[in-house]
Amino acid sequence: MRRSTEELAKMRRAGRVVAEMHEKTRAAVRPGVTTLDLDRIAREVLDRRGARSNFLNYHGFPAVICASPNDTVVHGIPGEYRLEEGDIISIDCGAVVEGYHGDAAYTAPVGRVSALAEKLLEVTERSLWAGIAVMTDGNRLHEIGREIQMVAEGAGFSVVREYVGHGIGTAMHEDPQVPNYWPGRPGPKLRTGMVLAVEPMVNAGVADTQVLSDGWSVLTADGSLSAHFEHTVAITEDGPEVFTTIP
Ligand code: MG
Ligand code: MG
Q: Quick one: angle between helices 5-28 and 35-49, nearest 10?
């Protein structure tokens, strides 16, 4: 799907709201804060900006952020869990403005973290930017995942296979799927006006995951740490434009 200039302008505004949700929650990450506190902070941003959450009630999800600590890969439900010194916490959230969606995630250290955790965060974020860098008109979709995989596996980590990035626009999850690895066959051509949510999930141990009994939380199968970074990115004539940052 290729978006018009007007549609891209709305998606840019949705992206800015998500960026602000990131900024405000990130500033609150510290030992003793609960993941429900972070959800409340994100809700305040949505309310202030007159934006709607695309996470709340999504297949029954009860919050506006996913909060996924340590070995939780994605889809953690905010609750009474208090962040501890040495944790890593991944926050994934989105916003809808005038019917158009933004979606982005980051993983932050809580106080001082291990050298392994620090490396995992650095590598996962770098893999995202490596994937974004090849989002130009005429390149192919699988090149995004190939770049991500090279960075992540080059550092000795593994890339989650069961969950992938996606097209985004008037729904949070649209076609095409955007794998974070070489999918075994060439993808479609990327074209100006396409908007994709690119979101590497990188594990310190094995790539395999399992879903917790709450039906949502996805954990690493071996209990190893996992990090997740995501941006909503448009392909423009001038190359990739990231909507979910504050310029
Ligand atoms: Mg997301
Ligand atoms: Mg997403």
A: 140
Residue 150 lies in a domain: yes
What's the Rg (C-alpha) of the chain?
A: 17
pLDDT digits (tens, 9 = 90+) for 141-173: 999 999 999 999 999 999 999 999 999 999 999
**247 falls within a domain:** no
**Residue 73 to residue 115: CA distance in whole angstroms:** 19
pTM across the whole model: 0.98
Structural domain of 94: 5-242
Q: Is residue 192 part of a domain?
A: yes
Among candidates 82, 54, 55, which has minimal Cα distance to 69?
82
In this predicted model, what pLDDT tens digit does every residue of 72-88 receive, in sequence order?
999 999 999 999 999 99
CATH number for 236: 3.90.230.10
- Number of domain units in the chain: 1
Helix axes 142-154, 115-133, angle to 10 degrees: 160
d(CA 102, ligand 2 centre) in Å: 9
Q: How far apart are the CA of 146 and the centre of ligand 1, in A?
A: 20
Residue 105 Cα to ligand 1 middle (Å): 5
